[in-house]
Amino acid sequence: MIGVFSYLVFFATTASILAIAVLGLNLQWGNTGLFNGGVVAFFGAGAYGTLILGGTAQAGHLGGFGLFYPLALLGGMAAAGLMAWIVGLLTLRLRHDYLAIATFGVAVAFENLMRNAEWLAGGAKGVRGFERPLRAALGDGFIYNLFFFVVVLLILIATYMFLERLVASPFGRLLRAIREDEEAARSLGKNPARIRLMAFVTGSVILGLAGGLYGTFYAFVSPQDVLPTLTFQIWAMLIVGGAGNNRGAIFGAFLIWGAWTLSGWALSRFAPVDVQLYTGSVQFILIGSVIVGMLMWRPQGFLPERLVVSQRGKPQQMQQGE
Amino acid sequence: MADPILQAHGVTAGYVPDLPILRDVSLAVPPAQITLIIGPNGAGKSTLIKAIAGLLPVSAGQITFQGSDITGLRTDQLTAHGIAYVPQTDNIFRSLTIRQNLDLALRRAGVDAPARLAGVFDQFPALAAKQRDKAGALSGGQRQFLAIAMALATAPQLILMDEPSAGLSPKAAQEVLEHARMLTGQGVSILLVEQNVNQALRLADHCYILAEGRNQIDGPAADLRDNKVVGEIYLGNRRVGAT
Question: Are A189 and B80 in contact (CB under 8 A)?
Fold first, then answer.
């Protein structure tokens, strides 16, 4: 019984970390209309940044700063934000499709850099030597995982509340206005380029936060953790849950991560042995099919964007196609 | 005659570098009047208003507003100078409520925001009644009124209107143009591009006719409306059977 509970805690921790990442993407795509095809690069910047800044000295790669954990996590978020600021300055004037291609290229370059620049992050062997916070007091077992899950859950709730307030604020309305029509927003004296950059950086800092927590949870990060697959998983979570709706983003993260782990378990248990070699590929096909299927039959996701009628009014659902 | 509030001198502009649509176009907009720009399709009317609005690069010439050079300023920078631009279409945010659309326009109004909002609702009581409705649910005419209301909420001295009657019923088009006329009574200057020439000429004070990206004729709107040659060439008044 404790085994099942332990697994559920492990599952919920990973799903919650991914939910934070999906919330970051939702700010960029769901609220602002920025097609970030390089999600994993900002997630990775947070993970690598946190582990390099918070880890012990390791021969052969940068690190050993041993910062107090919250500072290391903030440093990882800042690394993601800095990268987003540079990438955003260069790419945010591009149209949706070109922005997606450009940011996807950034993610591929990031993975290649991490894989090849051994002096920076250990290359293919990854970053090691990170001591999880409070490990000495709580050990490595179930109690620690439960503690870490609570921490991640609290951060998820805080991120959700921050974004809900942001979206309901005048700045949030401005983001939606820019998503809808940049020219009209400019005609009202708004500077879409600056506001898009702010949203891109803020969303990427949240992606970096998720990456930092992910790296902390596993006390390790390598180029295998920043493959494009993760970008598509996070996108699938947002599309299925409902772009533009923070609850949808969290729901999508749990649903897709559940489907991913369940399909992996089912394939390994029930598929013929020679097919099990292709379990990973089958899962990718499933994720792709889910994205295509949702875009065809329910493009607004399971929990569509809600329109806040007024600060005192009741929310009403947006009509499909708007 | 009062000094023009806006002047364009020899403006050359277009969508693609080295391929100008407008060539050496000049105009002057007097204060608190409607200045109309008309011309056949492809004459460069919308290009001119977009160049003035900072949406297209000006490769030659100068645009001044109240004596200050505003050539090359971005649209959002022009708002701070007192110039509002109402695009032809997609000029409101359909997924937001009417009130939220207006709040966006009022965001920099500070302590003036409540008074400005009240002023806008006085002028557009239909919008006040529906302020919690989604803007996308409005009729075409009401959307144009909302777009104009949003422009007014920025307290402009000059409004650039790009074909505000496009796609509207004749009655709605008439209402929108008459409202533009009413705004001049409040001291607002209007630079208006219109395809609905006969209606617009009745309301405008001064008119510029463009063709092939150049100035052709300009003068008081009433004179141009009654000018037989102008009517035949530019206003479609040629009689059937005439050669």
Answer: yes
| Helix, strand, coil abundance in chain A, percent, nearest 5 | 75, 0, 25
Q: Which of B78, B86, B97 would best serve as a mutation to test chain A binding (most A beta carbons within 10 A)?
A: B97
Structure tokens at A11: 């599952």
Say yes or no: A182 contacts chain B, CB-CB below 8 A: no
pLDDT tens-digit readout, A171-195: 998 999 999 888 888 888 888 889 9
In chain A the first and final C-alpha atoms are separated, in Å, by 48
Task: Note whether A23 and A249 are within 8 A (CB).
Answer: yes
Tell me how crowded residue A152 is: count the other CB atoms within 10 A of its CB: 23
From residue B232, give the alpha-carbon distance in Å to each of B36, B197, B229: 18, 13, 5
Mark yes or no for CB contact B104/A313 under 8 Å: no
Nearest chain A CA: its distance from B232 CA (Å): 36
Contact B58, B48 (CB under 8 A): no
Residue of A nearest to B150 (CA): A188
Chain A interface includes B161 (CB < 8 A): no
Q: How far is CA B8 from CA B24, B66, B219, in A?
A: 9, 12, 16
Chain A nearest-CA distance from B218, in A, is: 28
The domain ranges of chain A are 2-317
Rounded to a whole number of angstroms, the distance from the CA of A176 to the nearest CA of chain B is 8
Topology of domain A2-317, CATH: ABC transporter involved in vitamin B12 uptake, BtuC (1.10.3470)
Q: Verify whether the Cβ–Cβ distance A187 to B91 is below 8 Å.
A: yes
* DSSP string over A240-292: HH-TT-HHHHHHHHHHHHHHHHHHHHHHHHHS-HHHHTTHHHHHHHHHHHHHH
Catalogue the long-range contacts made by A1-6 (C-beta closer than 8 Å, 24 or more residues apart).
Answer: A2/A142, A6/A142, A6/A145
Q: Give pLDDT tens digits for A303-313.
A: 998 765 444 34
Widest CA span in chain A: 63
Domain boundaries, chain B: 6-234
Q: Write phi, then psi, for B63 (nearest 5 degrees).
A: -120, 130
Q: What is the mean pLDDT of chain B?
A: 90
What would the DSSP string read from start to end of A301-319?
-SS--EE---SSSPPEEPP
Nearest chain A residue to B149 by CA: give it. A188
CATH 3.40.50.300 fits B6-234, yes or no: yes
Is B90 in contact with A310 (Cβ distance < 8 A)? no
Q: Evaluate if residue A270 carries a pLDDT over 90.
A: no
Interface touch A307/B74, C-beta < 8 Å: no
Predicted local confidence at residue B236, as pLDDT: 66
A33 HSE (CA, 13 A, CB side): 17
Of A183, A191, A313, the CB nearest to B90: A183
